[in-house]
Amino acid sequence: MSKHYDLLNKWISNPNLQKHCFAVESCMSYYARLLNLSEKEIEDWGTAGLLHDLDWEKYPDEHPNKIPDILREYYISEEIIDAILGHAYPERTNTPRNTLMAKYLFACDELSGFIVAYALMKPNKLLDVDGEGVKKKLKDKAFARGVNRDDIYKALEEIGLDIVEHTENLIKAMHEDKRLGLS
Q1: With 80 as the cut, is the pLDDT of residue 91 above it?
Q2: Is the pLDDT of residue 9 over 70?
Q3: What is residue 1's predicted lDDT score, i.e. its pLDDT?
């Protein structure tokens, strides 16, 4: 788990946005462990997930372009900053997703939000959600309209996983995180 919760609390007051950041942190840490990365890399991947929307509340029209100024003040690594910049549209930040961290952050962000929205409709939350159900629900354009399906499919190509496998991994990661209240 990241040591940067004070930073998150300083910049984000909306509890739902904080939970989204917790979810992405959990998903990123899960993937770093799954990929057998070092303890430092697991921490860094979690930090990228936790802080990826840090400027969203105060600067939504500029997100995530305020991230470098904020995070450099706290001595956050350039790799984490680049991954966060890369999770947005490259034309918005001029930052390509060249690292695994950046690609997985992009892959975890939109889909984790969709999974949470879907789980909140279910009586037993995440326990009632699976990869096939999410795959089917993604086709319902009226549900969670703000989720960019094109980004989800582009991200899947970048990390080389299919929607069901990736979804199942995110569900496992979020199920382990009690802060989300979805278990």
Answers
A1: no
A2: yes
A3: 47
Q: How confident is residue 183, by pLDDT bands cut at 50, 70 and 90?
A: confident
Residue 49 lies in a domain: yes
Structural domain total, the chain: 1
The answer to whether residue 88 scores a pLDDT higher than 90 is no
Give the burial string for 65-89 (b: 16+ CB within 10 Å, else e). bebbebbeeeebeeebbbbbbbbbe
Q: For residue 40, what are its two tokens?
A: 């430092």
Query: Residues 77, 79, 82, CA angle at the centre, nearest 5°?
Result: 110
- Per DSSP, the residues of 121-156 read TSTTGGGG--HHHHHHHHT-TTTTTTS-HHHHHHHH
**What is the Rg, in whole angstroms, of the alpha carbon atoms belonging to the chain?**
15
Contact 174, 27 (CB under 8 A): yes
Has residue 83 got a pLDDT over 90? Answer: yes
**Angle at alpha carbon of residue 180, lines to 78 and 9, rounded to 5°:** 50
In a domain, 183, yes or no: no
- The sign one gets for the Cα dihedral 101, 76, 82, 106 is positive
Residue 121 belongs to some domain of the structure: yes
Domain with 173, as residue range(s), is 11-178
In a domain, 77, yes or no: yes
Query: Which tokens sit at 81?
Result: 């900053």
